[in-house]
Records
---
Amino acid sequence: MNIRTTEYLVFDGVTKRFGGLPVVDTPFHLTVPRNQFVVFLGPSGCGKTTLMRMSGGLDTPSTGEIRLEGEPVGKPDQRRGMVFQSYSSFPWLTVGQNVAFGMRYRPDLSKKEKRRRADHYLRLVGLHEFADTYPNRISGGMRQRVAIARTLAAGSEVLLMDEPFGALDAQRREQLQVELRRIQSEESRTVIFVTHDVEEAVFLADRIIMFSRRPARIIEDIDVTAHLGAARTLALRDSEMFFRMKTRIIQTVREMEVSA
């Protein structure tokens, strides 16, 4: 996977307060290269989701600026697609129609091209055979794949994912983690993935940004790919290097809890 080192998504001195509550108090600086898979790892309520939402245009910084390819981030647009923990499919539409729905505001695409793209992404996530099925007839893991396919089909260059596998059982969660890494590699997308699960973070990330308790500040910026490589398979979880990295991060989290 080719990752450019030039600036792509930039958090420049960002802070956020909700009324009198500081969520991100220390000015937050981070540069995410194009096509990098970045995991925001931290305790629940620490501010990592708020930072992700600001990069998607759902919240605005109190101070500072977020830029995508040099342009300030504004309201949500098709370049930045969001996938949440809840299954966001439309029950009155089939799986195929749900995926195509993400392209409804793409006047640059013909009906034929929209059908082609919907078919492509259904195949990419392994749901082509379920195109005419309604969401209430498929599993939770499959509905989450529908949400991912819809975001990809819409043409989103940046995937913003807020604990999208949190409600799934362990087996489906592992399967979708492998699937997401494969899709991200094949499609060359930039990903910001929010989680508080250390094992999930280590398995998925090219890079982990570890956060303190609220108000959010960076504790550590970890280059995972330098230690584990870019390829991710379930067998990696049984490797000594994976175990060492996971254990070290868990220890850092414990030390943070003690000092809090």
---
Amino acid sequence: MTMRVAAEDSLPREFLATRVRLAAKADGVAAILPRIETGFLRLTDAANVLVEVKAGAVNTSDVKAAIGLMPYAVFPRTPGRDFAGVVVDGPRELIGQAVFGSSGDLGIRRDGTHGSHVLVPRNGIIAKPDAMSFAEAAGIGVPFVTVMEGFRRAGLPKAGETVLIMGINGKVGQAAAQIAAWQGARVIGIARSADHYKGHAVADIPVIRADEENAAARILEMTHGRGAEMVFNTVGDPFFALAHQSLAKDGRQILIAALNPIVSFNIFEFYRGRHAYFGVDTLSLSCGESAALLRQILPGFLSGALKPFPVGPDAMFPLADVAQAYAAVMGATDRRIVLIPGDK
């Protein structure tokens, strides 16, 4: 619950805030020892607003930062990059507004969203659609920002283009499929197993198994010998060769992750195919930059062409169970995990 502490209206307002704190990086997920701290928080800068967090998503990058895989993560800190909540302090016209957002620096280089309150730049908040729950809005964040940053750099898919998505059933893969199909592109998915596409899209999404023999030949057959105009590679090096073989002339590949940082490829095929590769690092994006990307796709959510990830009761964790929430995210769960600070 929020508590205002001020003797007069002219004095700064302070709010009783509860937050997750990590003192230092841990040696593995099982060694993460988050503390729950309570203290007063107040708005200190006119460029920011104070948001009472109703839901904060847990991303793999939040947990990787906690175990030292993000060298620029500072400690001690409160993790969390994605949020949805209500503005409780700031410009009068914003107070009481339901908002959501994401950031590359929140929870990494500054205190983040895994708590009851968070300080956010004014240009980093977006009005939450009424039809969307706080948990759903919080879950949009990093996956959709990642996709839109890739499309910002490589160009939005065009109607009639084929977009091949490596790792189609991951959260970023599902977001990429949604947006590409919304733009009128034909989407083909690559998955490790024989699973059908698990997410929402405004068109049917055929899925090819990554280990299927002659997968590249199948893609060429499905595209009448052209290949895919765009490959969105959410996995990195394990699918790099297949992505390279599947690109159309003038095709572009977006890469967001890697298991092994070194890959080899045929340079002759690269320049003769006039291919282009684009790397995405959302940790370099500010809250305002992330919000600008999300605003571009807000019309899709408002129209129903795009949908947030469903967040079931078993995917909502109170702050007291934050360690279990972090472990669930790193356990390759299909769920979109969200912290609900108001739950006990």
---
Amino acid sequence: MLLATGANAVLASATTAWVLETERADAMGATAAVALLAVDEKRQPKGEPALFHAPQPAWMEWRGDPGHVGCQLTLANLPAGADRVLIVLYTYAATGPVSDLLGCTLRLNGALEHRVDLRGHGEAAIILGECYLRAGQWKFRALAEGSAYGLAALGRRLGVALDESNPERRGPGRERASSGATGTGFAVSQRALLTCAHVIEGMHEIHISSFEGRHRAEPVMVDSRNDLALLRVQDVVLNPVRFAGGQGCSLGDSVVAVGYPMAGLAGAGAHVTQGGVSGLFGLHNDSSLLQFTAAIQPGSSGSPLFDAAGEVVGMVTSSLPDAQNMNFAVKGGLLLAFLQACHLEADQGGERTTLSASDIARRAQPALWKIEARN
């Protein structure tokens, strides 16, 4: 039985076997892998995730080989509170898109089949499906839900730390493979910038660059839970942004994102996108995030989100690629609290005048820097 994306089917029992095949079988275990996440109906994590290189939890067992990755699930043994399992295909360290695997086929119990053409997926991780319990019956739902910034970013969204590194290229006596990440940062004082933690995590060499030059930076404080990182520079004086005072922003307010998406591909200069505040909570009613509709891309992480007066109301952190501009930003109030905890007093408020997007971009430009992080 061939399942279309979004379709579901009944599983014969709580003991389920599946096999995943990709068109690039040589990549599995080398540059890509599969993860299983036990969650509840609100996608809150329960128990330990199942990764290739981690001890196997009691509810699953890996089988097969890289060309035919297999698994036996004993769904009745899921951790307390879990009523579903997410099957996630991802690339190690988010160093490339899953589209490199070309296509994949997931077969369950020799009876159900879900095919996904990965060529149009630029994300570094994708949820292929979920086994879930409904009215005492186990079912499978076919999905193709991407996470642009990889498995670790998906984990942060769900509230769990996930190790997406290649187990063959780390550990005692071994170096991680050469890898890198780019993002955006913005000055919050004359010597410090804010960016997303996921841009610099695990990286040993960090530079900031703009038309004003390229400089070495070092992390001062990292809050992985809220995806915040404070960087310090020594050899350049920065031009800090101004934060919005009061409540920050309201539902429906216009916002402008300015950053460096798709570095090396979209051109050297900063890019500007416009949209509105579409929600005052993140997934699972996460009050630390707001939702907005201004388009973003990989590399936009860490971009400041400005209101109509050109004041910062948030920092771009993630998106749901299949949800039509459902993008997320850490709220300005949390950014200010983080800076205060770092003993930095940010510039707040002032005379408010409605500005055009071009005026906002022009004023923001001196505070913006491309982040280049390498291992």
---
Amino acid sequence: MNDPGMDASGHRARLRKRLAEGGPEALLDHELVEYLLALAIPRRDTKPLARSLIAEFGSFGRLLGAEPEALKRAGLTEGMIAAIKIAEATALRLLRSKVVAAPVLSSWQALLDYLRADMAHRTIERVRVLHLNSGNMLIRDELVSEGSIDQAAVYVREVVRRAIDLGSAAIILVHNHPSGDPSPSKQDIALTRDIVEAGRHLGITVHDHVIVGAQGHSSMRALGLL
């Protein structure tokens, strides 16, 4: 009888070879997850679990962005959860490095890629403020609220005061819609306009308010709402 551990080892060696020869696109989503799980349980066939996780969370991105408690409820051990969260952290750090390397407005797609990877699949709403210097370089990326934007404490005066404290010349507001639809709500628009007006009197520019979701993103400036 074949040793399942040996069979799994041979299969993973073939995955490694495909990855080395074909690059990131050589492996399917479930194969990437399969290999990540194998880091925690090296002598077990992780393909069935990888497939079930993709199905349960709906996509590779949703799986990587899932909260640890959700992964635990799905049956993952601490080691498996760590492997997945390390992969997420690595991907986000790589994407963020492209954002900080150049003026934000001239590397807009890099910023969108980073924001979507970090926020599009979150199950709770998060509000962030990106602070920029006079050269539009990112100087601080801060989480200012978690929860619903209709209920969360996103106060105009605190956003502006923080920009003054940091010496920000401009800011970009960002939040996600867990529903997946990135269309701005009336509350989103009203809050943004209040911050734009407050910043205008103090010489702080609001470049945009970007909303991300699983279905894409929206830019209030591109929509003519600023």
